[in-house]
Design a protein that fits this description.
The chain is an alpha+beta fold and 336 residues long. It contains ten helices and eight strands. The strands form three sheets. It has a four-stranded mixed beta sheet. A hairpin with a 5-residue loop joins strand 4 and strand 5. Helix 5 packs parallel to helix 10 and helix 7 crosses helix 9. The longest helix is centred in the last third of the chain and has 29 residues.
Length: 336
């Protein structure tokens, strides 16, 4: 990506995060490094996905922030709501994508040196790494939208991982609502539309250097390597659906492996600082010899950040595996 675009945009995002106190100092440093990794790739789409995710995620976090803050409690005992995001939270959402971007950049450099193929456009049914990167942002955007907007639902959440789909307090890990699920698919769709606008698809009937290397570029659905209208529409639909499923996977992982702790007196879910675990039993939490907190659901194996990172990895890897199956290509070609 051109430095004269990436540098000022990164600087503006860093200033925005600093001035609005939305990231911790370490979070700002890691976010700037993440943006730099995205910017070194020659395609602008990955940097754009990061920017859109940051801006859209920040926007939905601010929606009825005061209302959401009253629905949960922080582990310190005050009202809940998302505070400053830490470097761990930044990495949980972007680490998988950053690693895949570095791998794809290395792949492009190796191809250029060998003269194997042109990188002027992205042929249909190729480059699984691209699928993995876009899948990452579709999934984490879906999760963010689902969490931040779903908690505002007038209907009580139902626990996805329970046998009877029982109701749980707002903010419970694994709890889903129709509003939250719909919001998740909306977030994924925003990432899908961003990618379809900026990805360098090989166009149908193109007569550039890429066409000479790949032959006549016919539509992918007809056995060619071009991306026509129908191929792009299928891409948007597939990415939107896959990303939306990512939010449901996050709910399932959270419902199983992340303990949701409820304050006994208020009945509200207690949120860990920076996405960390919440203590259930401790001397200062006891009242009349009894703990003032109880576990609503889940097992305390992972914290929220680990769940997010695991979900992003599974959806990115899964996206590549599914695309390999649909495109009838061996996974061994992933780094070629």
């Amino acid at each position: 990506m051109h430095p004269y675009i990436a540098v000022p945009v990164t600087a503006a995002l860093v200033w925005r995060a600093y001035s609005r106190d939305s990231l911790t100092p370490a979070g700002i440093v890691v976010a700037a490094l993440t943006a730099s990794v995205h910017a070194i790739h020659p395609w602008s789409v990955f940097f754009a996905l990061l920017v859109v995710f940051f801006l859209a995620g920040t926007a939905v976090t601010k929606v009825k922030h005061r209302v959401k803050a009253q629905l949960t409690l922080s582990s310190a005992g005050s009202s809940g709501g998302e505070g400053r995001r830490t470097h761990v939270q930044v990495l949980a959402n972007s680490l998988v994508a950053s690693l895949l971007i570095l791998l794809h950049y290395r792949q492009l450099l190796a191809r250029d040196k060998s003269g194997h193929t042109s990188q002027g456009c992205w042929p249909y049914a190729s480059d699984f790494l691209v699928v993995g990167i876009v899948s990452n942002y579709a999934a984490v955007a879906a999760d963010t939208f689902s969490s931040e907007l779903g908690i505002l639902s007038k209907d009580k959440p139902r626990l996805l991982t329970s046998w009877n789909f029982r109701t749980v307090p707002p903010g419970t890990n694994g709890g889903i609502t129709l509003l939250g699920t719909s919001a998740g698919f909306l977030g994924a769709s925003i990432m899908a539309l961003t990618s379809v606008v900026l990805l360098p698809f090989c166009p149908v009937g193109h007569t550039s250097r890429a066409a000479k290397l790949f032959g006549d570029i016919q539509p992918g659905f007809e056995g060619g390597s071009g991306w026509g209208l129908w191929e792009k529409a299928a891409w948007v639909l597939a990415v939107s659906l896959w990303g939306g499923l990512g939010s449901l996977l996050d709910s399932a992982l959270g419902g199983w492996f992340q303990a949701s702790v409820v304050d006994v007196r208020s009945g509200k879910v207690v949120e860990g600082t920076g996405g960390g675990k919440v203590l259930v039993t401790d001397s200062h939490l006891k009242q009349d010899g009894n703990s003032s907190r109880r576990v609503e659901s889940g097992i305390s194996i992972l914290d929220n950040n680990a769940v997010n990172l695991l979900m992003a990895f599974v959806m990115s890897a899964g996206g590549m595996v599914v695309s390999a199956y649909l495109w009838d290509l061996p996974l061994g070609t992933i780094l070629q």
